[in-house]
Design brief:
Distance between the termini: 79 Å
Order of helices and strands: HEEEEEEEEEE
Radius of gyration: 26 Å
Largest sheet: 6 strands, antiparallel
Number of strands: 10
Strand order of the largest sheet: 1-10-9-4-3-2
Number of helices: 1
């Protein structure tokens, strides 16, 4: 009788220990394993509509599953780039005061051609082509991957 109670307690402690160990190991392994969603291969996206951006402003848009940035210069010219900083993959933004693309993570700066001009980014932003699908308000502004 006494040995069966001891066996039951050993079994209960063993099952509890395995459960506790699993609750620690599984999240660690899940964190260390990269996700299996494949990167979407996108050739073009509608980034904005005519009239949506004012001169000297920018807009973040999704290019597949990564962010892109569309900028309307003071001259009314559209330019598009990947919005991923080439330093540590932070998302960049447009700063209208200094008229540059700026990475807030480590104060990296890119000019309006995507060239890295100051800070730690080692190379320019990936640039995209911009195509207008009309001149009227509401017409689409399409951003295309360069081939």
């Amino acid at each position: 009788m006494d040995s069966s109670r001891r066996s039951f307690l050993n079994l209960l402690l063993g099952v509890t220990g395995v459960g506790a160990l699993g609750s620690i190991v599984y999240p660690v392994l899940k964190y260390l394993t990269p996700p299996q969603n494949a990167e979407q291969s996108v050739a073009s996206v509608v980034a904005a509509t005519v009239g949506e951006l004012k001169p000297n402003s920018g807009k973040i848009f999704k290019f597949g599953n990564k962010p892109g940035i569309l900028i309307m210069t003071q001259n009314g010219e559209y330019r598009a780039f990947s919005a991923i900083c080439t330093h540590l993959n932070c998302t960049v933004q447009y700063d209208p005061e200094i008229q540059q693309i700026w990475c807030a993570c480590h104060n990296g700066h890119f000019d309006l051609f995507g060239k890295n001009v100051s800070g730690p980014p080692p190379k320019p932003l990936e640039s995209f082509d911009v195509e207008m699908k009309g001149e009227n308000v509401g017409d689409e502004i399409v951003v295309l991957r360069r081939s």
